[in-house]
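Contributing new records

If you add data, match the layout below exactly. Sequence lines come first and carry their own label; structure lines follow with theirs. Keep one chain per record. Anything else will be rejected by the validation script.
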Amino acid sequence: MTLSELSFALTSVILGIALTNIAASLHRLFLAGRRVRWAPEPLLLTILVTLIIVQVWTDQWYIHDLKALYVGVAFLDVLRMMTLYFAAASALPEPDLLGEEPVDLTRYYYDTRRLSYGALIVGLWLFGAVFAIFRTPSLLAALQQFVLVPGIYALLILIRRRWFHLLVLVATLGAYGVPTLLITLR
C-alpha cells in the first residue's frame, strides 16, 4: 500500500461514515412519515454538506503521488474530516422511530446551527492550514478560506431570520454547488 492509498483510506472511512449518517437520518425521517414537519433549511444544508464531502473526497486524488506522510499532517487531515462528520451528523435529526413525538425540522435546524456551521468554520480553517503547509495560498484564496466563507457561516449562527438563511443557503449552493458539480477529474 502506498502512502497516498493509506491516507486516502483513512479519510474515505471518515467521509463515508458522514455520508452514511446523512443517509440514515433521511431514511428515518422518511419512515417517520407524517410526524415530520419538513423545512427547506436543513435539507439545503444537507445538500451543501454532501457536496462538500464529495468534493473533499475527489480532491484526495491530487495526493496520489505522495512521497512522505507526516503524522502531524495526517492528524490535521483526520481533524478536518471529523469537522465534516460533525456538520453531516448535525444537519438532520435522527427521529426515534418508535416514538410518537413530532419532528420539526425548522426548530431542529435553528437549534443545531451553531454546531453545524461551527464545524464548517473550523473545517475551513483546518483545510486552509493543511493547504498552506503544502502551498502558499494567494491572498485572495486565504481571505476566502479564513475570513469570507467562515464569516458567512458565522452570520448564519448569529442571525436567526429565516429569509436570510434561505437566501444564503440558496446563494451558497449556486455559487459553490453548481461549479463543484461541473469539476472534471483527470
